[in-house]
Amino acid sequence: MGVRLGIAGQRGFWLRCFLGAALAAPGACPVVHAQLDLPRAIHVVHLHGVVVNPKGQPVAGADVSLVKDDRVAYATHTDAAGRFDFEHAEGHYVFRVKTPGYAEAARDVVVEFEISALGRKQLYVVLGPGACSDDCSSVLTSKKEFQQIIRRNTRHSY
After folding, report:
1. What is the mean pLDDT of residues 43-60?
2. Does one domain contain both 21 and 71?
């Protein structure tokens, strides 16, 4: 189940305009508050994982960051095996992975030191092709879902 957030600001202007025109008279552009389904934040105790391309091959040297209030709070790069690790991060962040030639991956994460969190589960990041938007990239905690995406992607050519 996703979290419902209203579209606000310039990014949602054209969508609001389109939805307003569809619901009102043609040519009119009233402000309409549309709803988007966004994945819930991932809760972990320790933030670490692996970044791969659509075929499941590790992506070395990818920029991995934790962003808070539009500022990078923590940053690292993936190693030769595509792995990353944030040792001492705690709080609510936007987790981002960027590297040339691939679509950016992003997801809300909450790093907390509570028993109720997912513990040391690792994140699996599958970057989409560069011509794609961030909708083609995935940030997952399920190894099963990760493997399904890789199997599906290996059937397609990128």
Report:
1. 90
2. no
- Reading across the β-sheet that carries 91-98, which strands appear in turn? 42-44, 105-111, 91-98, 63-68, 71-77
The arithmetic mean of pLDDT across residues 10-29, rounded, is: 42
In the chain, the number of structural domains is 2
Tell me whether strands 91-98 and 63-68 are parallel, antiparallel or unpaired: antiparallel
Find the mean pLDDT for residues 50-74: 95
Contact present, 109 and 47 (Cβ < 8 Å):
yes
Q: In whole numbers, what is the pLDDT of the chain averaged over residues?
A: 74
Strand partners, 67: 72, 94
Beta strands in the chain (DSSP E): 3-6, 35-38, 42-44, 47-52, 63-68, 71-77, 83-86, 91-98, 105-111, 123-126, 138-140
Do 49 and 117 belong together in one domain? yes
> CA-based Rg of the chain, rounded to a whole angstrom?
18
Q: What is the pTM of this model?
A: 0.65
